[in-house]
Design a protein that fits this description.
Largest sheet: 5 strands, antiparallel
Number of helices: 10
Distance between the termini: 49 Å
Mean pLDDT: 93
Low-confidence stretches: none
Strand order of the largest sheet: 1-2-3-5-4
Radius of gyration: 20 Å
Strand content: 5-15%
Structural class: alpha+beta
Order of helices and strands: HEEEHEEEHHHEEEEHHHHH
Amino acid sequence: MIMTKALDIENIDAGFLSEVLGYRVEAVRAEKVGTGQTGASFRLHLQADQGPQTLLAKVAAGELSARERVKGGYAAEVGFYRDLVDSLDVRTPKCWYAAISDDHLHFTLLLEDLAPRVAGVQVHPCGLGQARAALANLAGLHAPRWNDEVIKDMTFLMNTRSQAAADFLGELTKQSAAAFVERYREQLGPDNAETLQQAAALISRWVMLPQQHFSVLHGDYRLDNLMFGEEPEDVYVLDWQTASVGSPARDLAYFLGTCLDVEQRRAAEWELVTYYHEQLLSRGVEGYDLEQCFYDYRLGHLQATMITTIGCMNATGERTAESDAMFLAMANRSCVAIRDLDTLALMT
């Protein structure tokens, strides 16, 4: 159901839920879940004679000045559930309600509660079974709108294909990387600190590279945004605030570069990239050979350092030891992958 009333969590009461769900809700209790950095999520326990007994509510978080910096992400997530998800084959929660304010500083999503599935934890690398399931799901995101020109006109999807937008993103990444290195220099070590800043210097040119192949990107496809069930293939993806249009291998590289430990990635990445490519072909993608896929995968690893540093230094959530560990795990693993795959040389 799509309406226009966007509320913060304190205003989501039984009356509001009765109105938007279309049946009577007697009472509701909200329980904070997760550690979202640019939004807040709550499990809603409903007293109602029909419908689900729990839902997940996702709303804006932080002061209005902080929300201003990330409101594009709010619009992307609401737009994804409102206008795009039904055309894809990706496993993601059912959306019961999606709304955003005109100024994009408030939004409300009511989503399927995926419990008892549990979220991945970024600091704990996933196994190969979970990785394959996540990659099959990723192919289900990319394949249905592969090279579909229509998605370029979806204004809620982030698009950096103008030079002005690319320059802005490049400057933001350089500033964020410099601040990230200043904050975490000791935990990064000299090699990773240097790689972060070298990668950041290339972003404005990287996002403007010619794109022979493009699709809808998640943009932040990693363990903290995935929910896993007891069976390895039971995986769902959350958090569409970085949904965009671009080279699909950016999501592939981001996942493998940040969600496997270094030695496991080194040993299995050819097998896993091949598996992802096979999944694309099985879903009807044509004219995309494995050699090109692996080249795009190598190039795509700049996604991880970009998103990690920007996400960390512009997060609206409270800084914690857990969030520090998450961002450092992502940064350190992705920097090693960039050097292993000689990604920066592809930009010379």
